[in-house]
Write a structure and sequence with these properties.
By secondary structure, this protein is an alpha+beta fold. Helix content is 54%, strand content 11%. It is built from 41 helices and 27 strands. The strands form 9 sheets. Strands 11, 14, 15, 17, 18 and 19 form a 6-stranded mixed β-sheet that branches. Strands 3, 4, 6, 7 and 8 form a 5-stranded antiparallel β-sheet that branches. The chain starts with a helix and ends in a 5-residue tail after the last helix. The N terminus is likely disordered.
Length: 954
């Protein structure tokens, strides 16, 4: 087999490849299958073509005569299948297939069936049986079909329309009305267009069909007119619905609304009174919901009932006369009155007076301070809850008349404050470290000192004791540390009061480190009570200096015991260690426990003069003995030491070079010379301080001298001690120098039992003294925090006193409120006389005001079951006069004053409507209408009031 040929053949679409068919006999022609009907599909078949023919294309033709040249190719019909278009109806078609060799094969012609069109009668579609002026009507029906069986598509059908209107007994065309819709003119009725119809023509290809005319539709305003008349029946007049029951009226309104919505837009536009229907629907819904709310009153919990009833009352009061006409026989109004029925005034007022006394009885006044009569949180809370429950039992009108409810509010606030304060003790535990207890106690103390005098009395004693115990948790630690520090440093001047040894050395170092760490863990106030801490820190540093020296001396001792060590090396080592030792202070030297062993183990030094002794050898040896004495400075006064050093230096200089070699301890003379120079320099500082004539300035210079003395090496300290002590013992006396101990003790005594025992002036005086102290002296005032708090309290009290002086007479309530905010200690800074005057004023405002309470009764009596009483105007004027005569504090008791102003406003509203009244006559319809409209807007309460006041108008 030729594989290449096979591949090529395989690449040809199967539909175009004609295999060899055994037994294929007949004409070499294309055959066509399918129905000869428009929109059906004809298909070309090439089964009868010669074997192995390959068709490359098709063309469908219309047959036009006997000549092929006249046949017309059908545009776009170049596939094996062909959907018959409407244009082919009544014509003959055939297909021609062309092969790759150029051979052409035709099919026999197929005659396409002609179209036999029919159309149904058209109809005019409208929103009702009538067409309304302005309405857009549309053609319906007019369905086109082919009786011969062609399945026509909508896009193959082209419609044309003509609208007609009736003139006499005939119809004539409506110019320009040739679309499938027609807008009826708004003036159709006046223009004589009262009946219309339409005719439709359809074209499919070249075939035409025409319909019969549609049924006649009458143009009329009937849908709108009918709706208008039905809506009118909803009202009897502008202020009253035509209602026999709310349910039937609601059903009627709902039905009309449904019919209205079914109207065309044009018909809706003609219903000019639709707003009546719309409002009726709204009003029915409003009344229905209000009825539902009243029915559910019993389901409302007690807490929300007051608000719920108020909402019902306000909702009904907003109804106008037309809306209230839906409340047949005032059934809803009566139900609301029943649930809002006022309780008996007499019993309520008895209870109000009792509650007023019970509230005032919560407070006690002693020593110009206010406290609660119940002395515990539990008893106070119980008393407050009992009173509040009794207040809640009062009717809504009388709850607000209970006086001094601010006392209850303050009590609840104080209870909450103390409960929060007690909660702070959850953070305090005796198991905590002393420092943590003190730190926690400090934050609790801060909160404690902010409590008012009343609040403080509610704090249980056990919590006060716990606070004090926590604040003093570090006291035993402080006492122990002070003893330990004194044992280590005491009044040390030249040596520490300990005698360390090789065995006890590390124990002392560890103890000092422990004491310092404990100090760092103390709170600031506790740390201020530690004495000698700075000296202990110095001891810690001196231990380090002494430890180095001890190691160096031990190293020398080992070197001296080592055989074969050169004398020069041993001498150099000894000299260096001795120099370092002599630089230590007396206190540091007192810690070097191996110093004596070192000093006694001087190195042996051999003098080599090559066998030639100098003539001044004897003098050199004598000088060596003199220098040896300089090592012990305690044998000299400064003057003697200076003379001895100068003399020895001169003698040394006079020796020959060979003779100087015999002065093997010359390093002692060198050290003595340095000590002499150092003491002279120190003496200059002493002299500068001694010459200062200003005591304060001298004190500062003496501090400098003291610091310098503490840093001098031991030998220099001894030699300088005489002048140093002479300076200290003869310092200038400063008459103005502060007595730190006295000031600290005075500050400690300014507070006792949470109240100040001194005046504002004394606190300011102590503050002035403290502020004059130097920074170092301020650190010595361990009670500084007490003074700081006192100064802050003084500022707050001074601010309060300004308020007192400015407002106590004109606005005492402001002063009372500000006074209540002061803490217990702050209150104690206010003089007893002023405290008492504030308390008296507060008590005066708390007394039950009988005249004001009676006025409250009178105002409440203006309405009975939600309706104003007869002769309301006269009663309101009397109450107004009585109210205006009350004092400002009495007026504050009249919590229902708004009811009086509401009554005055309602009287004016009714009078304003009455002013519009005119009797019904033929010539005052507009004025009468205005009065009726205004009257219709009155609430039920005002309608009843109007009838009582102006019965003749009705």
């Amino acid at each position: 087999m030729n594989k290449k040929l096979l591949f090529t053949a395989a690449a040809i679409p199967a539909a175009l490849f004609v295999p060899t068919v055994a037994g294929a006999v007949g004409a070499d022609a294309v055959t066509v299958t399918g129905k000869n009907t428009v929109n059906e599909t004809l298909k070309a078949s090439i089964e009868n073509l010669p074997a192995n023919s390959i068709v490359k294309g098709y063309q469908w033709y219309y047959v036009d005569g006997s000549s092929d040249s006249k046949n017309k190719p059908i545009s776009g019909a170049t596939a094996a299948s062909f959907t018959i278009p409407v244009e082919a109806a009544g014509k003959a078609v055939f297909v021609e297939a062309t092969t790759t060799k150029g051979d052409k094969y035709k099919s026999e012609p197929r005659s396409i069936n002609e179209l036999k069109l029919s159309i149904t009668a058209p109809r005019i579609e409208s929103s009702s049986n009538y067409a309304v002026p302005g309405e857009l009507v549309q053609v319906g029906g007019a369905i086109v079909t082919d009786d011969a069986g062609a399945k026509l598509q909508s896009n193959q059908i082209k419609y044309s329309y003509q609208w007609f209107y009736k003139v006499g007994d005939s119809f004539t065309i409506i110019d320009g009305a040739t679309n499938d819709t027609y807008r009826i003119p708004n003036n159709a009725l006046t223009s004589g267009i009262t009946d219309i119809m339409v005719k439709v023509q359809a074209k499919v290809g070249t075939s035409l069909v025409e319909s019969v005319v549609s049924d006649v539709v009458t143009v009329s305003n009937e849908p709108s007119d009918s709706m208008i008349e039905k809506i009118k029946t909803l009202l009897i007049n502008d202020n009253k619905y035509n209602v026999t029951s709310l349910e039937s009226f609601k059903a009627e309104v709902t039905a009309l609304e449904s019919k209205y919505q079914a109207l065309s837009a044009a018909a809706k536009a003609n219903v000019k009174n639709y707003d009546v229907l719309k409002r009726a629907a709204t009003d029915v819904d409003l009344i229905s919901k209000l009825n539902e709310k009243v029915d559910k009153v019993n389901e409302v919990n007690e807490k929300d009932l007051s608000k719920y009833l108020k909402e019902i009352e306000e909702a009904y009061d907003k109804l106008d006369l037309l809306q209230r006409s839906l409340d047949l026989n005032d059934a809803l109004y009566t139900s609301i009155k029943n649930i809002l029925k006022d309780p008996t005034d007499i019993e309520d007022f008895k209870e109000v007076r009792r509650l007023n006394q019970a509230i005032v009885a919560l407070l006690d006044y002693k020593s110009s301070f206010v406290t609660y009569v119940p002395t515990s949180i539990e008893s106070l809370k119980s008393a407050v809850e009992t009173i509040e429950k009794d207040i809640a039992k009062l009717s809504q009108n009388y709850r607000a008349t209970v006086q001094n409810q601010a006392i209850l509010s303050d009590a609840k606030s104080d209870i909450k404050k103390i409960e929060q304060f007690i909660k702070l003790f959850d953070k305090l535990s005796p198991k905590d470290s002393p420092s943590k207890q003190v730190t926690t106690a400090k934050s609790i103390r801060t909160a404690y000192e902010k409590l008012t005098y009343k609040q403080l009395q509610l704090v249980p004693t056990k919590y006060k004791n716990s606070l004090l115990e926590a604040e003093n948790a570090e006291n035993s630690q402080i006492d122990r540390l002070n003893i330990e520090i004194d044992n280590y440093v005491g009044d040390a001047e030249d040596s520490y009061p300990i005698d360390p040894s090789k065995d006890s050395w590390q124990g002392h170092v560890n103890n000092v480190n422990r004491i310092i760490n404990e100090y760092k863990g103390l709170t600031k106030n506790s740390a201020a009570k530690i004495v000698g801490y700075d000296s202990l820190v110095t001891l810690q540093k001196d231990f380090k200096a002494a430890e180095k020296m001890i190691k160096d001396m031990d190293a020398y001792q080992k070197l001296s015991e080592t055989p074969g060590v050169a004398e020069s090396k041993l001498k150099t080592n000894y000299t260096n260690v001795l120099k370092a030792y002599n630089k230590l202070t007396s206190l540091q030297q007192s810690l070097v426990y191996n110093a004596n062993d070192f000093l006694l183990n001087t190195p042996t030094i051999t003098v080599n003069v090559n066998g030639k002794e100098p003539a001044d050898k004897a003098a050199a040896l004598a000088l060596k003995a003199e220098v040896e004495k300089l090592a012990n400075v305690t044998k000299y006064t400064f003057a003697q030491f200076e003379s001895a050093v100068n003399a020895a230096t001169t003698k040394y200089k006079n020796l020959s070079s060979a003779g100087r070699k015999y002065v093997t301890n010359y390093y002692l003379l060198t050290a003595a010379s340095k000590d002499l120079s150092g003491v002279k320099s120190f003496h200059k500082k002493v002299q500068t301080a001694r010459e200062e004539t200003d005591a304060t300035k001298q004190a500062k210079k003496i501090q400098t001298v003291q610091t310098a003395y503490a840093k001098l090496p031991a030998n220099q300290q001894y030699l300088a001690k005489q002048q140093y002590e002479d300076l200290l013992n003869n310092r200038l006396e400063d008459g103005n120098a502060p007595d730190i101990t006295k000031l600290n003790n005075e500050i400690a005594t300014i507070v006792t039992n949470d109240t100040y025992t001194v005046s504002i002036e004394k606190i300011n005086e102590l503050s002035t003294q403290y502020n004059k102290l130097s920074s170092s002296d301020k650190k010595r005032i361990s009670n500084a925090s007490i003074l700081t708090t006192a100064v802050s309290d003084v500022k707050k009290v001074e601010s309060f006193m300004k308020t007192y002086e400015k407002s106590f007479t004109s606005n005492p309530a402001t002063v009372i409120k500000a006074f209540a905010k002061l803490s217990s200690k702050q209150m104690s800074l206010v003089s007893p006389e002023i405290r008492q005057s504030i308390i008296d004023m507060d008590k005066g405002q708390q007394q039950s005001n009988e005249s004001a309470l009676k006025l409250v009764e009178s105002i409440n009596s203006l309405q009975v079951n939600g309706e104003y009483i007869d002769d309301l105007e006269t009663k309101v004027k009397e109450i107004r006069t009585a109210y205006d005569d009350l004092s400002a504090s009495e007026k504050s008791v009249v919590k229902n004053y708004s009811k009086l102003t509401q009554a005055e406003s309602d009287l004016k509203k009714v009078a304003d409507v009455h002013a519009l009244y005119v009797p019904l006559t033929d010539d005052n319809a507009a004025a009468r209408k205005a009065w009726q409209t205004a009257y219709g807007k009155l609430s039920k309460k005002l309608e009843i009031l109007y009838k009582k006041m102006y019965a003749n108008d009705l």
